[in-house]
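Q: I'm building a small set of examples for a reading group on sequence design. Run inverse folding on the following structure and report the sequence directly after it, with nothing in between.
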């Protein structure tokens, strides 16, 4: 779902096409960040980071086009576009950043994702 490589947090780096809808919540990443994100209809809708240690991070968010980054109270948060769909954000301990498409204001809620087909429970074959 998420991958940290060389100091970059990659959100949904290699999902199969069948996984058009995915939600992660409090996914712990390298650098002491908790990550939440939602992918809907094959596109990343929002990414939220919470810093547990207080440090900068680089996030390859996967959101098409320009992005807005806001802190927990909704105010714009300073960031640096480092290219390739990635941004650098400095967060103090306990602070959060919400990354969305520019002008979009989705509610970063975590809700169950409907399965796209029947599957065995808990990954075990049906007997």
């Amino acid at each position: 779902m998420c991958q940290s490589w060389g100091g970059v947090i990659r959100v949904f780096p290699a999902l199969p096409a069948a996984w058009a809808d995915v939600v992660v919540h409090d996914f712990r990443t390298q650098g002491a960040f908790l990550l939440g994100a939602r992918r809907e209809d094959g596109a990343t809708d929002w990414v939220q980071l919470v810093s547990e240690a207080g440090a900068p991070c680089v996030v390859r968010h996967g959101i098409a086009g320009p992005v807005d980054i806001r802190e927990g109270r909704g105010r714009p948060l300073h960031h640096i576009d480092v290219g390739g769909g990635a941004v650098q954000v400095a967060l103090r301990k306990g602070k959060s950043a919400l990354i969305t498409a520019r002008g979009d204001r989705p509610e970063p809620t975590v809700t169950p994702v409907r399965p796209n087909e029947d599957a065995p429970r808990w990954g075990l074959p049906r007997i």
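The chain has a mean pLDDT of 86.
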